[in-house]
Amino acid sequence: MTAADATTDITDSAQQPPVARRRRTAGWRIVARKEMADHVLSARFGILILILGLIGAASVYAAASALRDAVPSLDPALGGVPALFLRLFTVQADPLPFSFVQFVAFIGPPLGIAFGFDSINGERSQSTLPRLVSQPIHRDDVINGKYAAGLGVIAIMLTVVMALVAGYGILRLGIVPSAGEVARMVVWLVVAVAYIGVWLAFAILCSVSTRRAATAALLAFALWLVVIPWLFFSTFAGIAADAVSPTGTTQEEQLSNAKTELALLRLSPYYVFQESTAVLLDPEVGALGVLTPEQVDRALLSELSLTDSILVAWPQITALLAATVVVFAVSYVVFMRQEIRA
Length: 342
Description:
Number of strands: 0
Distance between the termini: 19 Å
Strand content: under 5%
Largest sheet: none
Structural class: mainly alpha
Oligomer: single chain
């Protein structure tokens, strides 16, 4: 969004009579509407939709092929496989090294970074930020509107890709998801948006804190590489867990070491999102964390309802929402305390 476009809408709103002005949209909604229009009409949006859709369809195609070979009957009532349709999104099969949900967990952070790393410093480098904040709106409407627009575009992209991939899975597998499976996919979609919202908020924080968009992008991508568990973070967590709770010969010492490592791994949004995904898209998962053999037996007694699955994953869901709020609050405070000069 250019500052001139937003200025036109804001100025028109300011020139309305008092009664009409109260009926107009809030300032942050004006900024968000213009930002979303620019995002949706940009080439970046179309390219990302195409890439996400193609890779998502490829992962579902591989998973469907594996399920057709493994399940004797694709009718859930005859095959005896609970939530068969959801396995399209969680099963990893050759030739791809990831499932659909693993792909979303991996590509989600760059997606959030792409829509936030130049949100503020881009306006500053073009010398349009002073003109934008000088309009008759609150200063926080600028950062609120930009975050809302980025999160809205991400939600639209994930919804479109999820619908396309699910439709392709129906054609490929030949079964229709039940109402419960659709509800689980909707809840997972909301959690996925919250997960990417953490990275969008961090990218905006980098954009607010640095003068150049390239520097903000490098900082955001550097943190993304650090907290990916299978790249560096799991190794660091294992070393730190061995230092804090050394592995011994007794079961108690081994459990203590495993719990310490798990607590460190849960500092990564990637790992927290993977845990919530495992529960929401698989009704047979009844517990998370380090379990004793007795606890494992009790956790696998029966399938969970959607409400029970949400309760099991509620700490992870809350952690993602809290991380989003905290990171965005920091960027909000930094932006509000900055001096903006023409």
